[in-house]
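Shapes recur. Our protein:

. . .
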Amino acid sequence: MRTGPFTAEEETICGGFTDNSITTGKYTIVSFWAKSLFEQFARLANIYFLVISLMMMVGTYTDLYASPLTPWTTLGPLSFVLMVSMVKEGLEDIKRHRSDYQINTTITEVLDVSASTKDNVVYEKREWRNVKVGDVVRVMNNSDIPADLILLHSSEEQSAAYIETANIDGETNLKVRNAANTGKEGPAFSSEGELVGNGTASIEYEDPNPFIHTFTGTLDFIGKKTPVDQLNVLLRGATLRNTRYALGICVYTGTDTKIIQNSRQSRTKLANIDSTVNTTIYLIMFAQCVLSALTMIGFVIFEKRQGKNLWYICVADAQDNLPAGTDLYSDCEWESGSDTWGYFFTFFILYNNFIPISLYVTVEMCNYAHAHYIDNDLEMYDEEQDVPSMARTSNLGSDLGQVEYIFSDKTGTLTQNVMRFQKCSVDGVSYSKVEGGGEAMGALRQAAFAKKRGRAYDFIACLGLCHTIVLEKNDETGELDYKAESPDEEALVSAAKELGFSLVERTSSTMKIDLGSGVTKVFKIHATIPFDSERKRMSVVVETEDGSFAVYCKGADNIMLERSRAAGSTSAMKSHLSYYATEGLRTLVLCKKELGKGEFRKWMDEWKNAVNKTEGRDEAMAAAAEFVESDLELVGATAIEDALQDDVAGTISDLMQCGIKLWVLTGDKMETAINIGYSCKLLQDEMTLIKIQALDNNPDTIKLQLQKLAGHFGQVTKLSKNFFEVFNERVERRKTQWRTGIRRVSTMFSVGNRHTNESSMTDDTGDDSADDEVEETILPEGLDLSQLESQDMALIIDGPSLAHVLGDKESERLLLQIACICKAVIACRVSPSQKALIVRLVKRNVLPLPMTLAIGDGANDVGMIQEAQVGVGISGKEGRQAVNSSDFAIAQFRFLRRLVMVHGRWNYRRLCKCILYSFYKNIVLTFMLFFYGFYSGFSGKSLFEDMVYSGYNFFLGMPPLMIGMFDKDMSQRTMVRFKRVYMSGRERMDLNVPTLSSWMVQGVLDAGVLYFFTFGVVGGVSGGMYIFGTTCYSALVLGMLYRAAGSTYTWNGVVAFFWAGSGLLYAAIFMPIYSNWYEYSPQFYGVAREMAAGGGGQAGAFWLAMLLVPTTVLVVDLAKKLWRSMFVTTVIDHAMEIDRGITHDAEEMIRVMEGDEETIKGILSTRGEFADDGMYKWWLAFSSRLPKFKFDRRKLRLLNRKLDEASKKELGIVDTEGPGCRRNGDGGVWEG
C-alpha cells in the first residue's frame, strides 16, 4: 500500500511517485536511431540485404572471395529504404510528442496551503506535469481533470460532482461522484476555506492498476478514518460538468493514473500476408542457395575442362600453355583455382536481387492506400451519427478478404441498443404497451396506486428507485433529462415515470419522487450495491418516509429466480418470460425484501465494516450483499425491445453466402438468442438445430452429449465408393470440361466476343442450400468429421455448458468437430472472458488455422476483439472502448458487408498480385544472370553494370505499387451479386505455394526468352559486354512493364502516368545522364549512344530487339491466360467475364442477357469446382488445407430419421421435415 502526504511540508515524501507528465511517443532524440534501426532490422528482408552488403565488403576489400558487385549497389538502396521507413516513423512520433506537450503544459489550479487562510484561499497556477501526489487541486466546470483525485468538496449540494467519462469509456451520460464522508453524516466541509488549517492528512490506498471501476482506500483526516471507493474518485481524462468547481486530493499522477494504466497497447497483429511473405522469403533464399551451388558446380566443371586454356586471365592451370609470342603474360600473377569454395559467396552476391529490396516499402504504401480508401468510403459513412469508417490498423486490410469465421456480439452490434419498455409481468398478469399483447399499462398503474401497496406498487417502485440515474436539465426544453449508465436503465426509469412514479430530484443520499396530483415522496438511499457482469444484478437499500426499510433488486432472470422464494404467480411469470424471449425481448426480474429496523441496523454495520476495509473489501462487500439479496419476494418482470439495426438480416445472409461462418456470442437467454437468430436470418426455418445444455450442472452430461453427436454425424463418413469409381468420375468430368473449353474456342472464332447487358443480370448467390433436390455427395471413408460442412445445421450452446467445455481438451475437440459442420453457432449466457476464450479456441484449434474476425460495440467485447486476428468495433451507445481496442471501426453492422466483401477482397487480391509481381520481376533478373553464366564461364561476372543493376527495383518500383493500390479485378456490384468470388481470399487462392511456383516458373521461362532472344538478335553485332548487357537490360525493363500492363485490370490516369513514367525514367533520364557521366563511370561512358545509334548494325539490332523481345514476353503471358480461361477456369474467371460483359458461347450469352437464372447459376457452379464442391484438389495438397465436403440436406434428414424422439432429445437435435414445417412460440420447437 502507498501513503501520500496532504500538506506541502511533507512534499519530499512524494519523491518516490511518478510525475504527472505523460509520454506516448516511442522515441526520444537519443533513442530514435537505435530503436528505429532495431525495428527495421526485425524484418527478415532488411537483415538479408545488410548481410549481403557486408558480404560485398568482404569480397571487395579482402582476398577471401571476389564480389561481382560493389557494396554500394546494395547498401545504397538499402539505406534509402531504411531512411524512408525511419522518416515515416519519426514524423508520426513527432505528432505524438506535440500532443503530449500540449497536454502536459495545460494549466490547472493547486491549493497554496502556506499562503491560504479560511477567509482567503489562494491557488497557484501550475502546469499539469507539475502536479504532485498530495496536492489539493481545484477543477472548474467544463474542465478536464488533470490527475486521479479523491473528491473532498464541491460547489453542489452534499459536495457532489458530475463528470462525463467519454474520454475514458466513451459514455456521454453524466455520472455523479460523492465527496468523501469526512464528517458525521457526510462531507465535513461546506466551503473551500474550511479545508485550510486542519492539520495533515494521510491516505492509504491500493497500488496503481488499470481497473477504472474500482478503488479501495482509507483517508485519515481531522481525526477520522474515512473509507473511499470509486464513487469518491475523479479520474484523469474525465470532464467536470454542471458543477461550478470541485476540490480533490491527488492520489495518482502520470503513468500511475487509471486512464494511462488502462491504455496499454493491444498486442501487435501481424497480417496473414506478412507471414506468408516471410515464409516466401525463406523459400526464395533456399532457391538462391541452390542456384548459387549449381553455378559453383558449373564453374568447377568449366575450370576443369577449360582451365588450361585460360592463360589470358592468368589462371594458374594455363601457366604452361602460353601460345607462342605471348611473353607479356610471363609476368602475370597467376591465380590458383584451389579456392573455388569462395565462388559460392560470389554467386550468392550476384543473385542477391532474388528478393526485391523495396518489397516492404511497397507493401506498406499499399496498406496505407487501402486504409485511406476505408477511411474515406462514403458508402460506409453513417450520416445520422456523423461517424465515418476508420482503419485504425493499416496493415490488416488484406486480412479482411480472408475471413472464415466472424464472432459477433448481439446487443448494440446486431441490435440498435435503443431500449423500449414494451411488456411486463406482475402478479401473474402480462401487461403490454402494444395493443393486443396483454393487459394495458393503464390497468397496472391503476392497480398500483389504488392502495399504494402490493406487488404492482412494489414493481413500479423498484423501477423508479433501483438505478443510478443522474438528472440533467435540458437548456432548450427546461425539462429534466435522465442520464443513465445503460439504455436499459433509462428505459426502466422512463417506464416508471409513465406509470406515475417520476424521479424529480436526486442527491447523493436521497431520491424525490413525484406521484402526481402534487404528491411527492422522499426516499433515503442507505446503500447501493452496483451491477457487474459477474453478479448480474443490482440492489438499493432504501428508507421510506414512514421509517420502514426495504431492498429493491433487479437482475437477470436466471440469477433472480434462484434468489427468490416461490410464490403463486411464479409459474405464470416463468411462462411470460419464455414468451417474451421468443419475441426477442430482453428480460429482467424485479424483487423486493423488507427489513426490520434491527435487521437493517445489523446489516448496515456489517456493510459499513465491509466498505471501510482496505484489504479484501470486495469480498467483504459481496458477503454482506448476500444477506439482503437472498430470500427475495418476486414482484415482476420486464421485457424491453432492442430492435435490429438496418439491413442486419441482408448483411448476415450475404456474409454467409460468401462461405463465412458466423458465431453470435450473447449474454441473453437461449430462447431470446434463437428468436433473434431467426429475425436476422442467421437461422433458417429449414435448419436442424443442435442445443447443448448442461443437465443439473453436470459436466459429464455435456461430454457425453458431444460424444454421441460426434458418433451420430460420424456415421456419414462410413459411406464410400470404390477409389477407382471416384477417380473415373473425376476423369470424365475433366474430359467434359476440356470439350467445353474446345467448343468455346471454336465458338469464339466463329461468333466473336459478345457483351451482356449487366443491368439485366439477376442476382444469384450460387448457394445450393435452397434446393431440396441436391444430389448426395459421396464421402470418402475415414473422413475427419471436421471436414464435413452443412448449410442446414446450427449449434446453440449456453454459458454454463461452455464453462464445462473450455479447459477440457477432449470436450473442446468434440465441440469444434460439431461446430465446424454447422453453418451458424449461437452461444448464450456467455461472459466477456468466455467470448475471448471461444475466439481463441477456434483460432488455435481449427485446422488449417482460420482467419477470425470479432465485432462488438461495448467494453465486454474488448477481449474477443483483441483475441481475433481482425477486430472491428462499432461506435455505439456503450462507449468507445471496443472502438479503441479495434483494428477497424464502423458505425453500423451493415457496413461490415462492404468492409469484408468489397474492401477486403480487393485489398487481398491486389496486394497478392503486387507481391507476386515483385518476386517475379526479380526472379527474371536473377535467371538472366544465371543464363549469362553459361557464356561467361560461370566466372561470377555480372551481365549488367553495377549502377544499372542496382537501379532495377527503382525503375520498376511503381508498377507493382500501382497494382497494389488501384487494381480491381471486378466491380463491387459483381462481387456483391456473386458472393462465391469471396472464396479467392477465404481459400487463400492468390498467394500460396502453387501460385508462387507458377509465377516462378514463368519468371524462369521469361528470363530465357529475354536473354536468348536478345542474344539471337544482337549477339552477332554487339559492340561489347556493356552494350550487350544493357540491351538485355533494356529489353528486360520493357518486358516487365509489358508484363505489369498485362496483369493490370484497372487503368486510370495515375496508373498510366507511372507506368509510362517508369519507362521514361530509365530510358529518357537515367541512361542519357549516367552513360555520359565520365567522371563517375568511365567504363560506361557512351554506352547508351552506341547502343541505340551506333553503326555496324548495332542500332538496328537494338531497336529490333526492343520491338520483338518484350512483345514476345507479353504474348506468352497472354497465351497462358487465354489457355487458362479456356480449360482451367474458376468461379472467379466466370464472374470476371460476366462483369466485363464477355462470354464465348452465343447461346449462353443470349440466356444471360435474358436474365436466365439457371444459366447464370450454371456458370458459377458447374465449372472449375473448388474445395466447397466436395472433391479433393491438387492445389490443396500443396497449401496444406483439408478439403471440405458438403453434408447436404437430404443426407442430414435421412440420418436424423433413424432417431426416435427420445434419442433426438438426448442429442439435443431439433429437426425439421418438409416444407410445411413451422416454428411455434417456444423458440425453436417445430411442428409439422
